[in-house]
TrEMBL record:
Residues 5-62 form the HTH lysR-type domain. The keyword DNA-binding applies. Belongs to the LysR transcriptional regulatory family. Keywords: DNA-binding, Transcription, Transcription regulation. PROSITE patterns: HTH_LYSR. InterPro entries: LysR_HTH_N (IPR000847), LysR_subst-bd (IPR005119), WH-like_DNA-bd_sf (IPR036388), WH_DNA-bd_sf (IPR036390). It comes from Plastoroseomonas hellenica. It comes from the Bacteria. This is LysR family transcriptional regulator.
Amino acid sequence: MLDALTLDQLRTFVTVAEAGSFRAGAARLARVQSAVSHAIANLEAELRLQLFDRAGHRPVLTEEGRALLANARDILLRVDAMRARARGLGEGVELELSLIVDTLFPIAAVGAALVALRAAYPSVAIRMAVEPMGGPPAALLERRSTLAIMVGEDFRDPRLALEALAAVEQVAVVAASHPLARRPPGAAIGVADLADHLQIVLSDPSALSEGRDFGVLSPETCRVGGQDTKHALILSGLGWGRLPSWLVARDLRDGRLVRLDTRALGRDATTRYEAYLAYRLDEPLGPAARHFGAALRRIAAAAAPPRRPGRAARTASPG
């Protein structure tokens, strides 16, 4: 009878599958191995299926076990999310709100939302960091932050809830003194031309993109840890790169930076990405966090530029 299934059995199943053995699973659950083996045996009896092949040195998921593992994970995520929401509804105001923001997202919008938070909850301390690429989701997964603002689609995780905020545009730019800015009129820049010059790119502070590059076209790169450094180096004429449009609007208007005349980096050398407010499904959001999220959504919606016809959202957030 499937009605006799328990969440403990499902959690034990998932833990053993992820740990790779009954012994390792028992250690993660802080139980004796015999109790873990008994729980798995009871689950198999309830399902009338063998979840693990125990013939070898280590238990191996059967075909049925692999098929049901995704269902078990989904059930546990939903239950954890319900528990977190219930705890959040019953708890008082947080002592601190910790927030990590993707470097592509406009800090002015975050500041305005924090002003609204302080007006409603003046006693809540605020701790904020700004990191590129995998930094925000890594902070959530490692429980170093309550909320994160993520940009792009590359670091989605089933343990994280994402709420769309607004589109963020990046513009491929170069200093007015750079050779790429002094090409004859109408001489469009191709990928080969870009590859001949140094590209300034952001380094991912997390391990989530290990072995991967996003938007890197040149074999010559200068990798930096922050958007301000990247901005300053591009302004200096060292190389070219992409920067958020909100950061370079004045530089473009005053002629310190120019858009790269290329269609290899999006129309008008511009690409668009979706920004999300993210949090862990299994961690409750207190009243202050919920208030900040609501304020940020209002502010982002009010500041959102009109959609440009025909421009699709991109899936990568390049450095």
